[in-house]
Structures are given as structure tokens and as C-alpha cells.
Amino acid sequence: MHIQQIVQVVSQAATDKLAHNPVAFDVSQRLPFADAFVITSGDNPRQVASIADEVSERLRESGVNLVRSEGREEMRWVVLDFGSVIVHVFNDDDREYYDLERLWRECPRIDIALPDVSTGSSLAEA
Q: What is the pTM of this model?
């Protein structure tokens, strides 16, 4: 599965569980162990768990296996490692505090196309 497709599956799974503002960065030129980071967040630990579980399940169904995960004890910042794609699912407060978007802002963003719920069409987010 291509990186863009994995990012799309992650973003759709997360938003289906009401995740906030998923963003993706191409980190392939900066990191030797990953091609992309996806960052998203939820309101509370229960939602963070739901988002992480849905992302893991959807990728497994697509043939992409979870290599390892961290942070499932407290559900404030869960890191899901799918090899070439690393997914960060934050509690909203922790996402703001750690501000990974600022740390990776010089890396190219990967477009995410999510359905526009008002029209049913797809919107590309930068």
C-alpha cells in the first residue's frame, strides 16, 4: 500500500471517530525510520482510545500491520508505528502542549482528502 493511501485510511478512520484536525507530514527526508507522520487528537482518553483502535483496525483490514504502540496506558498521547507511517493520537491539551506540527512544519504536508459532510464530496486539506 502506498504512503498516501495509508495516510488516507488513517485520516478517514480517525475522523470517523470524531478526531480533530488530522494532519500529515512527509518526514522521509528527515528520518531514516519513517516516511510519514499523521497527527490527530480527541477530546478525552476514551476518544483517544477509540481513534487509536479504529486506525489500527482499518489498517489491519487493509493489510498494514501495527509494528508497535506506546501510550495506551494513559491515553493522552498514543503512538502507533506502522513501519513507514507513524500515527500520533493526542488528547487535545497534550497536542497543543507538545505542538508536533510546529516541530515538523518545514517538512512537506501530505494532502488529506476527507468527505465534506455537507455535500458528501471530498475535500483536500493542506
A: 0.88
